Amino acid sequence: MIIAPRVRGFICLTAHPRGCEQNVINQIEYVKSKGTIDGAKKVLVIGSSTGFGLASRITSAFGSDAATIGVFFDKPSSPGRPASPGFYNTAAFEKQAHKAGLYAKSINGDAFSKEIKEQTINLIKKDLGQVDLVIYSLASPVRTHPEIGKRFKSVLKPIGQTFSNKTVDFHTGNVSEVTIAPAEGEDVENTVTVMGGEDWQMWIDALKNANVLADGATTVAYSYIGPEVTKPVYRNGTIGAAKDHLEATAFRISDSLKAINGKAYVSVNKALVTQASSAIPVIPLYISLLYKVMKAKGTHEGCIEQIQRLFSDRLYVSGEVPLDDKGRIRIDDWEMSEDVQNEVAALWQKATTENLSEIGDLEGYSNNFYNLFGFKVDAVDYDVDVNEEVTLPSES
Ligand code: NAD
User: Fold this and answer.
1) Contact 191, 242 (CB under 8 A)
2) Which structural domains are found in the chain, ordered by start?
3) Does residue 382 carry a catalytic annotation?
4) Tens of pLDDT along 157-216?
5) Among protein residues, the one whose CA lies closest to atom 30 of ligand 1
6) What is the pTM of this model?
7) Ligand 1 cavity residues, CB under 6 Å
8) Which one of the listed residues 103, 224, 234, 286 is annotated catalytic?
9) Are 266 and 336 contacting, i.e. CB atoms less than 8 angstroms apart?
10) Which of 135, 143, 192, 239 makes an SS bond possible with 45, Cβ 3.0 to 4.6 Å?
11) How far is CA 76 from the centre of its chain?
């Protein structure tokens, strides 16, 4: 079928298998071009199908020849209905990994559940014995708690006071004022339950108790800090409370892994266009200004550049992993550098509907958004019929 984008707000209801495949191939080529990383050889990625998790899987496989198991939650295709992009990405990744002689299997299901944890452990036992790196890269608006069965919803709200600032509709370029009411009731606790560290800890406990973590195993989860302008709605808001919890969990996990010489890290990554970040008000405007400034300076990175640098310059350097004063890895260093932040802050004051396409990288934002779903990818002919029905190579 011919598959065109069907966009509704910050999601796209369709995805293009060839475009997704090309995105994966481009990321693989990038990692290969940067040379070998002396990293882990058996890797579990939880949240492996898009964004930072997919980049982590690709970097492990094609930078370090690692065997990878990916856990993700995506919609498969059915006749006449394209899959979600993470499904196509995973199929494309497995195809390329198998071609390169690398082990790659994937589990599509709810990572928050006990069943998927058990299934993953059984697969590790059967095929790999143990893993030496676990990447935790879930981004989800909901979580059904495996013990109490209740479904929790996360919200993106400020805490304590109403927040008003500029935002942009990245489809139209319309800059407007957005007002977000503060969290109420159990909003903060619920968001921490969904996006905090409890599930990460549950995964590591389950893996450790099943003896599938190798001696010296490392686990990494991803966090974000960001600039002053987004602080009330991000870092000081409900999602920030969850990130505080995630970051504190790293220390608890490290303690629990002492017996096997293991270690847990949180890496603070750069703001990027992903399905998760497009949904947060104010962030798209910040990202479009940030991209413009960083591209002009030659320091702009996407997910794959970020994760390749995380692995090669932070995680797998000789000697200690460099950490900030709160014990976190910082790969948002270029985003947070003073000159970049000063320039973005000055542009923020000026940004209007009329000037944004000039002072910001609205086009880059929009293209990136379409790219997430396999659209507007160079070298893909969208007028050619494509088979929407794709299966995971490891399942056929
Ligand atoms: P993403 O939406 O691209 O990827 C999320 C992944 O989680 C997908 O593979 C999806 O299939 C999987 N997933 C979601 N719910 C699941 C479930 N119930 N079971 C199994 N898999 C599930 O998100 P992303 O932007 O790459 O975010 C990953 C992490 O990086 C998050 O912790 C996020 O906060 C963090 N981060 C993001 C940014 C950013 O700007 N995007 C910046 C810094 C840190």
Assistant:
1) yes
2) 7-395 (3.40.50.720)
3) no
4) 999 999 999 999 988 999 999 999 999 999 999 999 999 999 999 999 999 999 999 999
5) 222
6) 0.98
7) 47-53, 71-74, 86, 110-112, 137-140, 222-224, 269, 271-272, 274-277
8) 234
9) no
10) 135
11) 20
